Amino acid sequence: MKIESTTKVVVRSDLYVAGITEDGGEFIAENYYVHIVFESGQTLNHACIFPGAEVEVSPDGFNFFADVRSEASDTAERLAQRIRNAGQINLDHWSAGPAAYGTDAYLTEVAMMSDAERRQ
After folding, report:
1. Looking at 1-10, 24-33, 109-118, which range is the least confident one?
2. 44: in domain
3. Dist CA 82 CA 88 (whole Å)
């Protein structure tokens, strides 16, 4: 699929649970992925997700979390740049995301929601 010059190809991040810490709590980390926003407001997310933490297990069995956010972000940015340069994408590697806030696509999505879904 060809992408227009007005299409935004950006790197986004989300939080995820990378594992359990030695005191039993969740270790929250950040992952990175390429996100496309079309002029219509429709969005796509690339299938490749680059985690910002690497789990290492100590000899006594405890998890340690290495911060690799910089490397993960850089890798996602290189992929985004390759997509910008190519000007096209293979839809086999993408999934639909929520419409961009305030666009016609967003308003259409909201109009199709039930009252309960809107309140979430």
Report:
1. 109-118
2. yes
3. 10
For residue 98, the number of C-alpha atoms closer than 13 Å in the C-beta half-sphere is 8
CB-CB contact of 26 with 78 (8 Å): no
Q: Which two tokens stand for residue 34?
A: 């390429």
- Total Cβ atoms within 10 A of residue 72: 23
User: Using one digit for the tens of pLDDT, what is the confidence trace for 73-101?
Assistant: 999 999 999 999 999 999 999 999 999 99
| Domain region containing 62 | 8-119
- The answer to whether position 1 is within a domain reads no
Residue 47 lies in a domain: yes
pTM, rounded to two decimals:
0.86
Residue 3 within a domain: no
Residue 14 · residue 34 · CB < 8 Å:
no
State how many domains the chain has: 1
Please check whether residue 53 is in contact with residue 68, taking contact to mean a CB–CB distance below 8 angstroms: yes
